[in-house]
Specification:
This protein has 13 helices and 19 strands. With about 450 residues, the chain is α/β, with parallel strands linked by helices. It has four domains: about 130 residues, Methylthiotransferase, N-terminal domain (Rossmann fold); about 120 residues, Transcription Regulator spoIIAA (2-Layer Sandwich), CATH 3.30.750; about 110 residues, Transcription Regulator spoIIAA (2-Layer Sandwich), CATH 3.30.750; about 55 residues, OB fold (Dihydrolipoamide Acetyltransferase, E2P) (Beta Barrel). It binds 5'-deoxyadenosine and iron/sulfur cluster.
């Protein structure tokens, strides 16, 4: 079919989390048989898809300013350009998008991506198509993953969607709905197909990935899934993100001790270090229980790199509460982290809370927290100097003759190495560390 289809150009811009990155790749896959090839220039595109994020106000507003620019590009195109808005903003405020920006041809929520080809054909006939989350998720994944073409040796694989935790600041339970897990057989089939196409590392994705299968009554949860996938020939590295401390069960901790393919890296957001704030956030854990949990995980896998998410300036956060966050960070010692200023999201319980923090106070806290986290990240990287680490080479580096790979701890590693080492896991002696990457030399002469 694709030989006869006319060549058309598709530009996809992705905002937000890795699940959106996965979804954007799948959208490109389902559109490829219709003759759409990916371009990185929106001015040149026949179809533009913005895959949007609703988590903070800034991310949402960016979509509207991007749409303003796209409108101008569209006006300059007598041959036509179709503009589609996908992702969480599409899900949450689809009608508003159509009202605010008439250049938009269609809006598609995350559960309807498999219907994109049909939606685009319909949008060419009449503007205003809007599809939201009323499809069976199974059907969506089966349709989206059938044509999957991995572009490298490391791939994302969505295993779970949605969230039932209802942190009081967060829109995800409303935009992405309740927790839902894909059947393990479908996940294994996708992972096997990826391994056959040369993928060596998979990252299992979910808004609450360590709650995997808990909506189906358990059956071993994420730990059992990881053990199953670890048996696939050629799949040498498994990662997962993102997790909630409440779902970090004994079986998963044991997997970190016992499954060599499971990489020693864990993204486990805590958000804050004050019990008062954690309670107001509805996190259902305390600072102490989180620190004890990290200790248990480190007892199972002593070298594990811990990463996290933080919010400063949550309503009611006082200086003493913020100091408790800094204290927790000092105790845990993070290898990397993401920190954000609280963003008030209409419709969430926290939006109506008393004690909204002044932006200047939140800015100052964010700077202090980021300085401490940066220092810890640099210390973690520096501690690798002199060690030999297995590095999975993923792509060419910036300099000729150089490759870039990943350490087990998710650090980028730059090495002078021949191209034939791409896709291989090779021992590298780490010589130096920068803020965001390591540099090293091959431990052995290339064979
Ligand atoms: N304001 C700021 N940060 C937020 N996050 C989620 N909701 C908000 C919000 N309203 C952060 C949390 C979460 C990460 C994905 O985004 O830290 O873990
Ligand atoms: Fe949002 Fe909390 Fe669910 Fe994470 S666990 S997606 S922060 S509600």
């Amino acid at each position: 079919m694709s030989e006869t289809a006319p060549a058309k150009r598709l530009y996809i811009k992705t905002y937000g989390c890795q699940m959106n990155v996965y979804d954007s790749e799948r959208m490109a896959d389902v559109l490829a048989p219709l003759g759409y090839g990916v371009t990185d220039d929106p001015a040149d595109a026949d179809l533009v898809v913005l895959n949007t994020c609703h988590i903070r106000e800034k991310a949402t507003e960016k979509v509207y300013s991007e749409l303003g620019q796209l409108k101008r590009l569209k006006q300059a195109r007598p041959d036509g350009m179709t503009i589609a808005v996908a992702g969480c903003v599409a899900q949450a405020e689809g009608e508003e998008i159509m009202r605010r920006q008439p250049a938009v041809d269609l809006v598609v929520g995350p559960q309807a991506y498999h219907q994109l080809p049909e939606l685009i054909a319909r949008a060419h006939r009449a503007r205003g198509e809007r599809l939201a989350a009323d499809f069976a998720p199974d059907e969506k994944f089966d349709a989206l993953t059938a044509e999957r073409r991995p572009s490298g040796v490391s791939a994302f694989l969505t295993v779970q969607e949605g969230c039932d935790k209802f942190c009081t600041f967060c829109v995800v339970p409303y935009t992405r709905g309740g927790e839902w897990s894909r059947p393990a057989d479908a996940i294994e089939a996708e992972a096997r197909a990826l391994a056959e196409k040369g993928v060596r590392e998979i990252t299992l994705l979910g808004q609450n990935v360590n709650a995997y299968a808990k909506d189906q009554g358990g059956e071993g949860g994420l730990a059992a899934l990881i053990r199953r996938l670890a048996k696939i020939d050629g799949l040498d590295r498994i990662r997962y993100t993102t997790s909630h401390p409440r779902d970090m069960d004994d079986a998963l901790i044991a997997a970190h001790a016992e499954v060599p393919e499971l990489m020693p890296y864990l993204h486990l957001p805590v958000q804050a270090g004050s019990d008062k704030v954690l309670k107001a956030m509805n996190r259902a854990h305390t600072a102490e229980s989180y620190v004890r949990l990290i200790e248990r995980i480190r007892a199972a896998r002593p070298d594990i790199a811990i990463s996290g998410d933080f919010i400063v300036g949550f309503p009611g956060e006082r200086d003493a509460d913020f100091e408790a966050t800094l204290q927790l960070v000092r105790e845990v010692r993070y290898a990397s982290a993401f920190s954000f200023k609280y963003s008030r999201r209409p419709g969430t319980p926290a939006a109506a809370m008393m004690g909204q923090v002044k932006p200047e106070a939140a800015d100052e806290r964010l700077q202090r927290l980021q300085a401490l986290l940066d220092e810890q990240q640099q210390a973690f990287n520096a501690a690798q100097a002199g060690r030999t680490l297995p590095v999975l080479f993923e792509k060419a580096g910036r300099h000729p003759g150089q490759l870039v790979g990943k350490s087990p701890y998710l650090q980028a590693v730059h090495v002078t190495a021949p191209d034939r080492m791409l896709g291989r896991i090779v021992p590298v002696r780490i010589e130096s560390a920068a803020r965001n990457s390591l540099a090293g030399v091959l431990e052995l002469e290339p064979a």
